[in-house]
Amino acid sequence: MEFSDLRMGKTKKKRQSASARVDPVGLGETGDNLEMNGEPTETEIIANIMSQLQSGNPEDKVCGCQSLGNLTSLEIIRGVIVDQKLVRIAGPLLLDSDQMVRLAAAGALRNLSATDPDTAEEIVKQDVMTPVLEFFNQLTSRQTDTLTDQEYNILTEAVN
Predict the structure, then answer these.
(1) Cβ(97)–Cβ(57) under 8 Å?
(2) Which of 25, 37, 50, 103 is most buried (CB neighbours < 10 A)?
(3) Domains in the chain and their CATH numbers?
(4) Nearest alpha carbon to residue 66 among 33, 93, 44
(5) How deeply is 155 buried, as exposed, middle or buried, from its count of CB atoms within 10 A (0-12, 13-18, 19+)?
(6) Phi, psi of 68 (to 5 degrees)
(7) pLDDT tens across 71-125, in order?
(8) Residues 91, 80, 39, CA angle at the centre, nearest 5°?
């Protein structure tokens, strides 16, 4: 055995080529659910958000609300949100038992209503005010010194 054959210390691991990777989504080369450029369509995005909002898992609901709030800046997505009446799903989340879901729902509704006056008018027509008023009624029935910091954050999001 020669001295040059002995390697001491760390060695680099050999990398696999990109073609050896496993397809985690399982779509293969075709990309059945994707457009030609590899991007999901607006309706697919909204369908995914809708399923997250209707999930029984609070983390999924929060993720759906955050996605909804982030995508409201895109006019085409905003139109699909109004057409699909996602507000009727997101609005009642203000009354959810999980505080993080309530906060995310308040933020999403605030973002949606703040982007465009016409959008705000449409979501009012879709009866977003019923869960908002019920949310305020729940908070006003309590003493202000009993509200938690999280509840103050939710209230701030809902008022703005």
Answers:
(1) no
(2) 103
(3) 40-159 (1.25.10.10)
(4) 93
(5) middle
(6) -60, -45
(7) 888 888 888 888 888 899 999 999 999 999 999 999 999 998 888 888 889 989 9
(8) 120
